[in-house]
Write a structure and sequence with these properties.
Chains A, B: Its EC number is 1.2.1.11. 2 copies of one chain form a homodimer. With about 350 residues, chain A is of the alpha/beta class. Chain A is about 30% helix and about 20% strand.
Chain lengths: ~350, ~350
């Protein structure tokens, strides 16, 4: 049997919690396009969205409300919900024997929760004392696959990162606000007088200032000593995923007027000397990475060349002129796909493979 | 006597070469607004623009064509023209005894030409064997006043810089192309599918890829080992202005959809330990710098808050968590004003002061 009629009786059952959100929507598309390893796929959302019908694997599925019963018979649950919803409900699902793959920030730095990027540290997913596996923040994710490959060869010592983050990192509301603002500034002379953008745009939505024709050096909430939560996430999550507890990391996070796909300018310092050629070879061969690096022919990644694709794109690979152990790169990754939904799906598939392996020895 | 009827007979005479360009236009506004130290102000442009009448100091002045005679009786000439025009004409003007303040890239790295930012190295303007003083690239300029102040206290050792450069860095054509592209993407769903922006926009103007709702990691021309000319300018000019021949500098230059005002994320490493508080104090007191740094109240510079103003704005001042000798900052500077026209005017005024001092001992 094939397709919709496949015999799914011996396959693990999956729940998608937060199925109606920006990331959830991308996730249903990804689940429909990837090799199908799942029995039932149950769609879960807030009570407000219960009863809606969404398409996954070409089938209409009715959304059920988040409750303890929603996890009955479910082997793996992907969570794409706000931190506080994950904090409450992931342990409830885990207590029922469901393995939770969580995309919120609630558990990422929990010592008993692995933080997993399959191309970098797949083995970590097997040790999960709380029954929860965390998915990294989308900004960390945009660079970590490429850095993991370079680290394997050269030994990473320090990172200096500046981000160029897309509006959709703030969800569907971010996309809508940027589209509205872009329509408002089009055909105007805005951008030539201090504050003329603020005069035109009063609703900055999820952003700290107007974003169209602007750059906003802020993402997340204020933490100690002037750091933003987003900047600390990039530092702490990079250390955890790479297993480098003492990695030196300095990050400045900036939002720019791009709909989807985060970019990062990365200065990476290694234990050993690097060469441009060897770095390019490693990146060209690394799973999940596309090297797109021929500036003489106009070839370097831009967010719009990358949006909607799965890999991390890397260009502008240079050895630092004044430091033979450092590389300068420009990386782009779709923050809704690999940055969120795709990595969640990949982790869930790792768990599915483990469960199927146990069931059929 | 005051105003238009002022006795200007004992004042130095100024020529503005390239008076009709994007920077030239800003320059005429600046000359009209600043304290007036000039006798005649002669406006010079290509033969094509000769005969046009422009307003400066409230007076209509007819533009004359660039020629040897254009420098007769002129004490100081500001050049805002392409590199090859400066390369040809600045020495001609200098040979007639005119002190040239040049904003092109033609002479910046010439050992016999000082590269001057008055707040940082005003004294260098007095030693000019070729009779030419160079004005830095607008990207270097956007950060160097703030860094000069920090260097005086802590001793600068290394810079890692990522730029967020505005369209007007590529002149009037850059502004027009970004405005056209913004109008084209407004009201569309562009930004959700790889290449949908390239499909809509065929004319990328002075940029290497479509810029609206995008980020383009390229500025200038291709140099050795994958570096762009703009990135090398930031490195080499920073070293020369600060007098630090061995300063380590790594730069990635990126164009973003902003009309005017360059921003930079700067990671600066010093000889001595730094504190956030002392760094903020230094910046708050530095001439030509505005410290705007209270993220809890939504206070950090964005390009649109800075455009049209003179100073370098600095925010997001943080001591690096993993390096007590490093600071992370976000700086913004109007690339047409301090980044070009204003600094040129400031240098010319330094020379005017020197000439007046000689004339009236």
């Amino acid at each position: 049997m094939t397709g919709g009629g496949a015999d799914r009786s011996h396959r693990p059952n999956l729940a998608v919690v937060g199925a109606t959100g920006a990331v959830g929507t991308v996730l249903l598309g990804i689940l429909s396009a990837r090799q199908d390893v799942w029995g039932e796929i149950r769609l879960v959302a807030s009570a407000r969205s219960a009863g809606r019908r969404l398409t996954v694997r070409g089938e209409q599925v009715e959304v059920v409300a988040l409750s303890e019963e929603a996890f009955e018979g479910i082997d793996v649950a992907m969570f794409d919900v706000p931190d506080e919803v994950s904090a409450q409900w992931a342990p409830i699902a885990a207590a029922k024997g469901t393995v939770v793959v969580d995309n919120s920030g609630a558990f990422r730095m929990d010592e008993d929760v692995p933080l997993v990027v399959p191309e970098v540290n797949a083995a970590a997913a097997r040790i999960r004392p709380r029954g929860i596996i965390a998915n990294p923040n989308c900004t960390t994710m945009s660079m970590i696959v490429a850095l993991g490959a370079l680290h394997s060869e050269f030994g990473l010592r320090e990172l200096v990162v500046a981000s160029y983050q897309a509006a959709s990192g703030a969800g569907q509301a971010g996309i809508e606000v940027l589209r509205e603002q872009t329509a408002k500034v089009a055909g105007t002379g805005v951008g030539e007088q201090a504050g003329d953008l603020r005069a035109l745009i009063s609703d900055t939505g999820p952003f700290a200032a107007p974003l169209a024709l602007n750059a906003v050096p802020w993402a997340g909430s204020l933490q100690e000593d002037g750091w933003s939560s987003e900047e600390l996430k990039v530092r702490n999550e990079s250390r955890k995923i790479l297993g480098l507890a003492n990695l030196r990391v300095a990050v400045t996070c900036v939002r720019i007027p791009v709909i989807t796909t985060h970019s990062l300018a990365v200065h990476a310092v290694f234990e050993r000397e690097v060469t441009q050629e060897r770095a390019q070879e490693i990146l060209a061969q690394a799973p999940g990475v596309v090297l797109y690096d021929n500036p003489g022919a106009g070839e370097f990644p831009t967010p719009n060349d990358v949006v909607g694709t799965d890999p991390t794109w890397v260009g502008r690979v240079r050895r630092s002129i004044d430091d033979p152990t450092a590389l300068d790169l420009f990386v782009c990754g779709d923050n809704l796909r690999k940055g969120a939904a795709l990595n969640t799906a990949q982790i869930a598939e790792l768990v599915a493979g483990e469960l199927i392996g146990r069931a059929t020895p």
